[in-house]
Amino acid sequence: MENPFTDEYFMKKALQEAETAFEKDEIPVGAIIVIDNKVIARSHNLTELLNDVTAHAEMQAITAAANFIGGKYLKDCTLYVTLEPCQMCAGALYWSQISKIVFGASDENRGFEKMGTQLHPKTTVVRGILANEATDLIKRFFAEKRK
Amino acid sequence: MENPFTDEYFMKKALQEAETAFEKDEIPVGAIIVIDNKVIARSHNLTELLNDVTAHAEMQAITAAANFIGGKYLKDCTLYVTLEPCQMCAGALYWSQISKIVFGASDENRGFEKMGTQLHPKTTVVRGILANEATDLIKRFFAEKRK
């Protein structure tokens, strides 16, 4: 039997979070954190509602996952996030020593890869999973904003 | 009359926060945020107590200051922090568009300047205010830890 727990499978859950952000009039970015194929944290961008630049989806997911685990290091965890993390979120992921980061769309302007933010040596990165879906959602959000 | 509101004046308040962190068995880093010579946020590192890598003094101060202001941009605000911010905190400060960052001791290993994290173009930086006091506190903390 084929393994149903693919990166696409979990990224769809992150996209559902991004859609929830969209409905709340937030830039639609969603994240989940998974350990042993189990979702232990789910979150979406809340910077507007909370009036807080630190309320990115990833930051909330890191806090929630650490709370679930009962420790601050996210060993054996994978973050799925619809948009490439920024400097802040990549910096937080560095401290968390997370095992794997899977992101959807690249952020050519503010993404950590262009900005040169360092991840922990233990962290591996997978790019471009359901990137079109993530980008379409963000484009649709800004198109509605311009109306 | 001399202006009492110098960078040293406010950094002493950040150092008091660092001492509170020390008493809680946290790596002693403290921060305050000031607007119009008024302290609107004070915080210290709580990563151990909260089991959360995102609970750096600066992150908490940014959230608290935005809450006080009622908006997420820290225009006309100055952050005083006893230790040079890391990638995560510098990344958060980038988003906040804070006017000025004053830090005490440099962090040669994990500080944002060595790591190359970008601040917002509107942000100015002052380095080395009461740096010895900040460093002494951190050295004393780790010396006690090794006992």
UniProtKB/TrEMBL annotation, chains A, B:
Could you tell me what the cofactor note in this record states? Answer: Binds 1 zinc ion per subunit.
Q: Which domain of life is it from?
A: Bacteria
* GO biological process, alphabetically ordered: tRNA wobble adenosine to inosine editing
Q: Supply the Gene3D superfamilies for this chain.
A: Cytidine Deaminase, domain 2 (3.40.140.10)
Q: Does the record carry Metal-binding as a key word?
A: yes
Give the CMP/dCMP-type deaminase domain ranges: 5-115
The answer to whether the entry has keyword Transferase is no
| Keywords linked to the UniProt accession | Hydrolase, Metal-binding, tRNA processing, Zinc
**Active-site residues annotated for this sequence:** E58
GO MF, one term, reads: zinc ion binding
Q: Which family does it belong to?
A: Belongs to the cytidine and deoxycytidylate deaminase family. ADAT2 subfamily.
What's this chain's function?
A: Catalyzes the deamination of adenosine to inosine at the wobble position 34 of tRNA(Arg2).
Subunit record text: Homodimer.
Q: What is this protein called?
A: tRNA-specific adenosine deaminase
Originating species: Flavobacterium restrictum
Give the source lineage, highest ranks first.
Bacteria, Pseudomonadati, Bacteroidota, Flavobacteriia, Flavobacteriales
Q: Which gene encodes it?
A: tadA
